[in-house]
């Protein structure tokens, strides 16, 4: 009595979604074998697509058939055995050579004496179905991309919506992704720092069953870099080498994305934290003789009565060669720095008047912003027209694909920048007044810095006033103020009725 192998297959691909499940095929084929009195000696179950050769279970079954362990196959349909010409040809050849003596499906039988054309047609139809499906699927994905719907798996910070077939913002992870961009834009963090930052907020690696990965680990550096360079987060995405404007909600602005890209270009060697925390005034002053940085040295003295005194001295590092400058005590240096700050304190009545002038200009700026927005909208309209003409040129084959893609990327980038400028003007058309208000606030608070003994606050104020223009020569601190503070001091010295208005206009 001939012996049979029962073969069932269920693919996860789209073309097999309407085919019976593994369990349903087994039930039907067992009943069929019993009805036809077929001796099933083993069942083969495979969960893999047949559109490409190389199925391990299928190949093992054919090997055993060639060894004579079975003479027939029971399957649901002939396309369960093959959907590609390689496997289909192998089945046809084995059947013609009577190595396979019988193939039984739910609706017909295949025997060595049958017309080989019928089996070839069925295998050909199965193969053509796969090819047509691939072409149609690719065309559908391209059309989806042209509509602005990302035709792939949502990146971190987003999630695929199975109901709408679109991509929605992941409310739990999106804030962490945005914060990661902001963190890296400060140019103070490495990829490892961003990975640890995301790990603390629940964004970690996932376990992959096929690869037996552990999961729940910090993201790798390459993954972090991929996130920081993905245009999807500000609204555009690349699909099949072409840039599209997405309809999904951006997580970040293009301005922040561009800033991160600048940091990526500027960063060279990784930044490492210093082993020892520096003293308060370190990194603030340069030596007036050799140009080296002024560093601190802590001396601790233990007295006989058990008291411990701690003294801090500042001196030149002398890393640029010999230098004759000597030490200066922290108390003496701090007193000199306070004297340097004093001329730049803004009087309270000045601050009130400057705030009033800023409020007055703010009202006028609102009307000016309307004109700017109209010009930018005209620019966006012009870019849309240029984009349309570019597509026509590409459709008429008047321009090659590489030139088309390059010009399209440039136009879409310019359009995105213009749209963000419009958004910024509509939200805050007086952003240029904010630095003035910040300056007035900082200059007004210098009085509190002078009354405070906090060296960190003193250092922060000195950096705002002098930047890196502080030096120490013969134990005397000197500095050249930045333009805005130099103008403030000059206005105080040459005070007149119009000096405050002139100072405001200069700012």
Chain-wise SSE layout:
Blueprint: E1 3-9, H1 22-36, E2 39-46, H2 56-66, E3 72-74, H3 85-96, E4 102-104, E5 109-110, H4 116-146, E6 158-161, E7 166-169, H5 174-185, H6 191-200, H7 221-228, E8 236-239, E9 242-245, H8 254-266, E10 286-287, E11 294-302, E12 308-316, E13 328-329, H9 330-341, H10 348-395, H11 401-427, H12 434-444, H13 446-451, H14 455-466, E14 470-473, E15 476-479, H15 483-493, H16 499-506
Parallel strand pairs: 1-2, 1-3, 3-4, 10-14
Antiparallel strand pairs: 4-5, 6-7, 8-9, 11-12, 12-13, 14-15
Helix pairs in contact: 3-4, 5-6, 5-8, 6-7, 9-14, 10-11, 10-12, 15-16
Overview of the structural elements:
- The protein has 507 residues and is of the alpha/beta class.
- It folds into three domains: 3-134, 3-Layer(aba) Sandwich (Rossmann fold), CATH 3.40.50.1390; 158-266, Alpha-Beta Complex (Hect, E3 ligase catalytic domain fold), CATH 3.90.1750.20; 341-507, no CATH class.
- The chain has 16 helices and 15 strands.
- A five-stranded mixed beta sheet has the order 2-1-3-4-5, with helices on both faces. Strands 10-14-15 form a three-stranded mixed beta sheet.
- α1 (22-36) links the parallel β1 (3-9) and β2.
- α10 (348-395) runs antiparallel to α12 (434-444).
């Amino acid at each position: 009595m001939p012996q049979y192998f029962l073969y069932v297959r269920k693919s996860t691909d789209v073309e097999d979604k309407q085919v019976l499940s593994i369990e349903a095929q087994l039930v039907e084929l067992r009943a069929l074998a019993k009805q036809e009195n077929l001796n099933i000696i083993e069942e083969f179950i495979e969960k893999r697509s047949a559109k490409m050769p190389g199925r391990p279970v299928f190949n093992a079954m054919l090997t055993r058939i060639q060894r004579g362990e079975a003479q027939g196959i029971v399957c649901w349909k002939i396309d369960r055995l093959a959907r590609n010409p390689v496997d289909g040809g192998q089945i046809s050849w084995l059947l013609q050579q009577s190595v396979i003596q019988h193939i039984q499906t739910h609706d017909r039988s295949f025997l060595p004496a049958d017309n080989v054309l019928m089996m070839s047609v069925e295998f050909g139809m199965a193969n053509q179905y796969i090819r047509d499906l691939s072409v149609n699927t690719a065309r559908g994905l391209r059309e989806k991309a042209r509509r602005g719907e990302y035709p792939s798996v949502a990146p971190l910070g987003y999630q695929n919506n199975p109901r709408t077939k679109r991509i929605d913002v992941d409310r739990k992870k999106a804030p962490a992704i945005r914060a990661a961009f902001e963190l890296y834009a400060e140019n103070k963090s490495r990829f490892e720092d961003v990975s640890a930052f995301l790990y603390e907020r629940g964004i970690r690696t996932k376990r992959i069953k096929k690869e037996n990965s552990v999961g729940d680990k910090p993201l790798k550096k390459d993954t972090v870099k991929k996130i920081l360079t993905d245009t999807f987060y500000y609204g555009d995405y690349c699909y099949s080498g072409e840039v599209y404007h997405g309809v999904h909600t951006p997580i970040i602005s293009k301005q922040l994305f561009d800033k991160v890209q600048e940091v990526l270009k500027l960063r060279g060697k990784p930044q490492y934290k210093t082993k020892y925390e520096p003293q308060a005034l370190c990194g603030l002053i340069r030596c007036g003789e050799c140009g080296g940085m002024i560093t601190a040295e802590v001396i601790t003295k233990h007295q006989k009565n058990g008291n411990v005194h701690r003294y801090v001295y500042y001196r030149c590092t002398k890393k640029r060669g010999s230098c004759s400058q000597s030490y200066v005590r922290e108390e003496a240096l701090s007193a000199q720095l306070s004297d340097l700050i004093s001329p730049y304190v803004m009087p309270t009545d000045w601050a009130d008047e400057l705030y009033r002038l800023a409020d007055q200009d703010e009202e006028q700026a609102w009307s000016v912003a309307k004109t700017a927005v109209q010009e930018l909208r005209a620019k966006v309209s012009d870019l849309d027209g240029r984009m349309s003409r570019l597509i026509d040129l590409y459709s008429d084959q008047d321009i090659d694909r590489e030139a088309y893609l390059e010009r399209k990327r440039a136009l879409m980038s310019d359009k995105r920048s213009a749209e963000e400028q419009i958004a910024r003007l509509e939200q805050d058309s007086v952003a240029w007044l904010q630095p003035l208000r910040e300056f007035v606030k900082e200059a007004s608070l210098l009085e509190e810095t002078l009354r405070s003994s906090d060296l960190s606050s003193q250092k922060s104020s000195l950096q705002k006033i002098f930047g890196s223009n502080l030096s120490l020569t013969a134990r005397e601190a000197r500095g050249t103020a930045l333009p805005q503070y130099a103008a403030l001091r000059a206005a105080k010295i040459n005070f007149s009725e119009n000096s405050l208005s002139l100072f405001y206009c200069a700012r």
